[in-house]
C-alpha cells in the first residue's frame, strides 16, 4: 500500500465505490445521482484553499501545545434549521465558550463549527421499524427526511443540492456575523444577557464578560485598539461521509495544483468509516485540508499510527487531528496507549476529546441521552491522561445547541430523565443546551488554567 500522496491522481468515484463503501445511501436511480454529481462539480467552492491552509497552520499550533480547539455544533444540521436566529444562537454559544476559554485559561482558541455541512449521518441499521412498519433509517437531511413516513424516508439524491445550498447560506451568514460586528468582544456581555437571571452559568459568564469589558476599556485608554478584538476566525467542519458529495466538491487549487475538499474547512472521518483500506481514507488522503479522525474505544495504538501514516505520510504540521471518543469508563485505560504509540513515533498530532459519542444511552422512556456528569468525567479523564503523559490536551469536540433544549440529563439545572420530553428537538444525537455548554466551558477553562499553574510551579520562583 503506497503512502505517497503528492503526485497520485485523485481516485474516481468508481474507484472509491470499489473499496467497499460503508454507510452510503442506497440510491434507487443511478442516473439521477450522476446528474446531481455533475451539477455539484461546477458549483463554486464553499471554502477556499487558502483558508484551509491557514487553518492547518492553526492546527499545527494546537499540535505543538500552543493553542486549544473548540469544535461544536449539532449532531445533525437540518434544512429547516437554516434560519438567521438558529445560526446566530449557535454562533453565540460557541463564541461565548471560546471567549471564556481564551480569557479564563489564557490560551488562543481555534473555533470550529460542526456547521454548514453536517447533514449526513452514519447509522447502526439501514432500516427502522416502528409498530411493525419498516422504513429506511434517517441518514440526515442530505439523504432523506426525518419524519417516519414513506415519503420522507425516501432516499433522494436531489437532497445533495440542498446540502450545498444550505451550507452556502449558513456560511454566508456566519462569515457576516464573525466579521461584521456581532463577534466584537466589546459586545460579549450582550450575547447571554437574556439568560443571566435564570442560570448560574449565565451569571458567571456575565461576570467574566464585565471583566473583559473592563480590560478592553483599559487597553483603549492606553491607546491600544486592535481589529482582532472586533472579528474572529471561525471555520466550518463536518464528517466527510457521502462519497458523491465530497468527491464532487473536491477541486484542484490553481495556486498549488493540489486537490482540496471545498465543502468545508476541516473534514473528519467518522468512527464507522475509518477503515485503513476504505474509500473515506482513500479520498481524504489525497486532499490538502486539515483532517480529523474519530477514534473510539476499540482503537488499537497500531491502528492510530497506521491511520496517521496513511493520511499524513509527510508528517505535515497540523494535518492530523485525532478526535478521541472512548467513553468515560474507558478513556483512562485506552487513551494512554494510543497517545504513547503515536507520540513515540515522533509524530505531533492534535488530540481532541469528543466526550459525547462514547457516553450515549437510552432512557426507560425511550430517549437517547447523555449524562452531563459522564461528559465531564470523560473530559477530566482526557486531561488526566495527557497530564500523566506530559502531552497537550488540544481541544474538545461537543454536540451542542444555542437553544434551551432538554436532551442531555444533569448539569446545574439537574435535568432529569422525566424532563427530556419537554424540549427534545435533535434530529439525531442529544446535544448540550446553552447552560450545559457554558458550564462545560468553565470546567475546561479551569482544567486548562490549573494545568498552566502546575507547569509554571515546576519552575522555582525564588533563588
Ligand atoms: C458524530 O460525530 O456525530 C458521530 C457519528 O461520531 P462518531 O463517528 O464518533 O460515532
Ligand atoms: Mn452525533
TrEMBL record:
Transmembrane annotation, as ranges: none
One GO process term, biological-process aspect: amino acid biosynthetic process
Lineage: superkingdom: Bacteria
Sites where the protein binds Mn(2+): 75, 357, 399, 429
Cofactor note: Binds 1 divalent cation per subunit. The enzyme is active with manganese, cobalt or cadmium ions.
Top EC category: transferase
Enzyme nomenclature, EC number: 2.5.1.54
Catalytic activity: D-erythrose 4-phosphate + phosphoenolpyruvate + H2O = 7-phospho-2-dehydro-3-deoxy-D-arabino-heptonate + phosphate
GO molecular function: 3-deoxy-7-phosphoheptulonate synthase activity
Cofactor: Mn(2+); Co(2+); Cd(2+)
Binding-site residues for phosphoenolpyruvate, renumbered to this chain: 114, 271-272, 294, 325
UniProtKB keywords: Amino-acid biosynthesis, Aromatic amino acid biosynthesis, Cadmium, Cobalt, Manganese, Transferase
Pathway it works in: Metabolic intermediate biosynthesis; chorismate biosynthesis; chorismate from D-erythrose 4-phosphate and phosphoenolpyruvate: step 1/7
The family this protein is said to belong to: Belongs to the class-II DAHP synthase family.
PANTHER family per record: PHOSPHO-2-DEHYDRO-3-DEOXYHEPTONATE ALDOLASE, PHOSPHO-2-DEHYDRO-3-DEOXYHEPTONATE ALDOLASE 1, 2
Protein name in the entry: Phospho-2-dehydro-3-deoxyheptonate aldolase
Amino acid at each position: 500500500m503506497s503512502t505517497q500522496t503528492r503526485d497520485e491522481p485523485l481516485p474516481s468515484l468508481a474507484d472509491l465505490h470499489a473499496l467497499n463503501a460503508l454507510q452510503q445511501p442506497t440510491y434507487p436511480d443511478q442516473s439521477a445521482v450522476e446528474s446531481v454529481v455533475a451539477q455539484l462539480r461546477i458549483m463554486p467552492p464553499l471554502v477556499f484553499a487558502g483558508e484551509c491552509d491557514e487553518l492547518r497552520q492553526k492546527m499545527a499550533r494546537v499540535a505543538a501545545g500552543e493553542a486549544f480547539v473548540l469544535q461544536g455544533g449539532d449532531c445533525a444540521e437540518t434544512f429547516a434549521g437554516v434560519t438567521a436566529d438558529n445560526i446566530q444562537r449557535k454562533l453565540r454559544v460557541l463564541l461565548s465558550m471560546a471567549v471564556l476559554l481564551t480569557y479564563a485559561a489564557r490560551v488562543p482558541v481555534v473555533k470550529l463549527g460542526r456547521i454548514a455541512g453536517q447533514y449526513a449521518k452514519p447509522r447502526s441499521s439501514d432500516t427502522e421499524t416502528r409498530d411493525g412498519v419498516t422504513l429506511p433509517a434517517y441518514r440526515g437531511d442530505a439523504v432523506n427526511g426525518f419524519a417516519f413516513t414513506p415519503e420522507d424516508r425516501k432516499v433522494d439524491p436531489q437532497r445533495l443540492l440542498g446540502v450545498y445550498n444550505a451550507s452556502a447560506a449558513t456560511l454566508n451568514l456566519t462569515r457576516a456575523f464573525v466579521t461584521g460586528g456581532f463577534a466584537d468582544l466589546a459586545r460579549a456581555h450582550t450575547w447571554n444577557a437574556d439568560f443571566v437571571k435564570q442560570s448560574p452559568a449565565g451569571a458567571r459568564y456575565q461576570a467574566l464578560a464585565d471583566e473583559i469589558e473592563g480590560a478592553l476599556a483599559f487597553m483603549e485608554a492606553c491607546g491600544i485598539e486592535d481589529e482582532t478584538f472586533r472579528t474572529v476566525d471561525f471555520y466550518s467542519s463536518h464528517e466527510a461521509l457521502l462519497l458523491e458529495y465530497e468527491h464532487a466538491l473536491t477541486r484542484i487549487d490553481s495556486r498549488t495544483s493540489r486537490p482540496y475538499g471545498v465543502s468545508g474547512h476541516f473534514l473528519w472521518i467518522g468512527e464507522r468509516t475509518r477503515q485503513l483500506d476504505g474509500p473515506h481514507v482513500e479520498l481524504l488522503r489525497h486532499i490538502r485540508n486539515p483532517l480529523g479522525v474519530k477514534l473510539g474505544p476499540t482503537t488499537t495504538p497500531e491502528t492510530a499510527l497506521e491511520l496517521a501514516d496513511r493520511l499524513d505520510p509527510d508528517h505535515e504540521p497540523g494535518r492530523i487531528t485525532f478526535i478521541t471518543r472512548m467513553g468515560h469508563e474507558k478513556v483512562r485505560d485506552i487513551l494512554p496507549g494510543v497517545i504513547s504509540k503515536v507520540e513515540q513515533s515522533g509524530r505531533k498530532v492534535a488530540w481532541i476529546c469528543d466526550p459525547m459519542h462514547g457516553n450515549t444511552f437510552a432512557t426507560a422512556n425511550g430517549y437517547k441521552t447523555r449524562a452531563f456528569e459522564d461528559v465531564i468525567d470523560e473530559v477530566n479523564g482526557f486531561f488526566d491522561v495527557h497530564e500523566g503523559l506530559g502531552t497537550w490536551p488540544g481541544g474538545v469536540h461537543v454536540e451542542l445547541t444555542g437553544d434551551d433544549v432538554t436532551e442531555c440529563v444533569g448539569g446545574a439545572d439537574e435535568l432529569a430523565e422525566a424532563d427530556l420530553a419537554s424540549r427534545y428537538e435533535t434530529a439525531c444525537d442529544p446535544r448540550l443546551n446553552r447552560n450545559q455548554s457554558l458550564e462545560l466551558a468553565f470546567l475546561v477553562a479551569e482544567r486548562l488554567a490549573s494545568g498552566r499553574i502546575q507547569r509554571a510551579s515546576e519552575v522555582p520562583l525564588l533563588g
